[in-house]
Amino acid sequence: TQIYVSGEISEDSAQLLRFFVLRHAIRRATVHLDSPGGSLMGGIELGRTIRNLGFDTSVGSVSALVRHGLCASACAYAFAGGIHRYYSGESAQIGVHRFSARGGAMNSDASQLASGLIVSYLEQMGVSSELFSLATFASSEEIIWLSEGDAERLRLSTGGDPPRETPTRQTSRATSRR
To answer: What confidence score (pLDDT) does residue 115 get?
Structure first.
């Protein structure tokens, strides 16, 4: 099954995915992400949900039939949740940057807690914590785009292209293909 998730990641994105999966009785899937980012904690929770469901991830959009997509900021952390993580840097983009607090500055205690949470999450997902270090080199207004080789070296991508299937279902927030 193919599930397409697009748009800004919010605090309730993981809950929406769980509801969609339950409603359609999906047991195995690749989640194709096409998002400029959004909530850091929402992205991490979405990634944990994808991992707990045993799903794979890919960067892609339904309009481009899996091949093109953008996954930046919090989306990169959601992508990290996949069991198998498919990324072809020729037709898709994954980007990272330094996290920031919405609407203002984050105090140093909160910043250190968030940094520790991110590093721990990446290690739990089997991704090199060097990804977090790399992200700190770009301000929250900039993006560092990863090549396919970078993503594989950092263990963010497990390589290859996702399997293709025929579309059968759609919802307003995601599309499922069986």
So the answer is: 86
